[in-house]
Amino acid sequence: MMTMTTRTSRTHRIRTGIAAAACTALACGTLAAGALSPTPAWADQNSCEIGKTNYITSTPWTEDALGMTTVRSLADGEGIIVAVVDSGVDTNNPHLAGDAVLPGVNLAGDNVQDGRTDNYGHGTVVAGIIAARKIEGSSLMGIAPKATILPVRVYNSIDNSSSHSQGGPSPDVLADGIRYAADHGAQIINISQSTVAPSGTLQLAVQYAQAKGSLVVSSAGNRNTSSSTQDGLRYPAAWKDVLGVAAADTSFHASSDSISGEQVDILAPGESVLSTIPRGVDCVFSAESASSSYATAYASGVAALVAQRHPDENALQWLQRIEASGNRPDPDARDDNRGWGQINPYGAITITLANGMRGPGSTQYEPYTPPRTQQTQHLKVEATMHSDGTVSAVLAVVGAAAILVIITLIALRIAKDAKHSADE
């Protein structure tokens, strides 16, 4: 059976004390300890212990990098439903309590009632990046802090003990999750997962969601957890009109941990990200290498802001806003590492969609056409002398005719003047 892999890097080295504490709290590996790597500058040694009430107060680097203070004055995601098709979302975290998370659904095949349980932790991290509510004593706030999360639980856990992650949902279960999300009003569908092999069932589900008006946002692939470490297409990100997201490091450069390829549409933060931990509060994740799972969540949060700000536009227009506004050296070019550039929330919200936009093409607007270089051409006419003297003869006749015309005009003028004098 083809399996999906989540995009959380498992290769982080964590301190012995943290690993021991985590093993006790996590029943020795229910949630991959490597996925919960803290950064010493932000957190103490117990910051990533599940069930530990830990508040991080340092401002995450992503706030300034994405200009979130200004962005949130324009949009906060209110009224937008973002489906997190993942391992579930733990609503015991105070950032995700109250109206932040809908009941959702459990499609994992175990005895969990709905989508509000997360035994693995991945979905809770993703949900926190997107829509964590602001609480007292914590610096964490989601990209779209008033968006509503729809948890679609498609797997219980993933085995990280081998060279790459194994387990996760089958393409059929993931497809069911995508259809559920579309049927239950999700404007944005976050899929922080990918596979190297395309599935017809999965593709049909993506197309179904798109036909329902949803924007599907998917991981472009993560090298450390993929069944293949080679760059190349990953699905669903590679399919038409899916926003494929690669991970950036803290310098906002494309990380080598992220898979490159034609499926990359935009670059978003994926390293040292602050988010929510199950049955706890705050944690810094992927401190030593970038994860495209988390980058995908940032992109989904931005998509929620765009959808709120532009409710009369469709998912394709939201997609074009995000791509066209990406920060890149050449406005007319993308590449396989960063797609259309660094994600730019303010630009995505404020850009004007019109004919002649720079960047990605659109079926609705005429593409930008580079202006032609204006070249002045100087024409030089030269008479060629033939042996028969034709040109000379012609010029002589024309010259004589001109002289006769001039003489005639002078004669007529003299005659007119003489007649006028006689009349007087």
Summarize the structure.
This protein is α/β, with parallel strands linked by helices.
Head-to-tail CA distance between termini: 119 Å
Helix/strand order, N-terminal first: EHHHEEHEEEHEEHEEEEEHHHH
Provide the residue-averaged pLDDT.
80
Shape: elongated
Strand content: 5-15%
Furnish the topology, listing elements before pairings:
Blueprint: E1 5-6, H1 16-25, H2 61-65, H3 68-72, E2 81-86, E3 105-106, H4 122-131, E4 148-153, E5 158-159, E6 166-167, H5 171-183, E7 188-191, E8 193-194, H6 200-211, E9 215-219, E10 243-248, E11 266-269, E12 273-276, E13 282-285, H7 292-309, H8 315-324, H9 345-350, H10 390-423
Parallel strand pairs: 2-4, 2-7, 3-4, 7-9, 9-10, 10-11
Antiparallel strand pairs: 1-8, 5-6, 12-13
Helix pairs in contact: 4-7, 5-6, 7-8
Structural summary, described in words:
The protein has helices spanning about 15-25, 60-65, 70, 120-130, 170-185, 200-210, 290-310, 315-325, 345-350, 390-424; strands at about 5, 80-85, 105, 150-155, 160, 165, 190, 195, 215-220, 245-250, 265-270, 275, 280-285. The protein contains ten helices and 13 strands. A seven-stranded parallel β-sheet has the order 3-4-2-7-9-10-11, with helices on both faces. Strands 1-8 form a two-stranded antiparallel sheet. The longest helix has about 35 residues, at about 390-424.
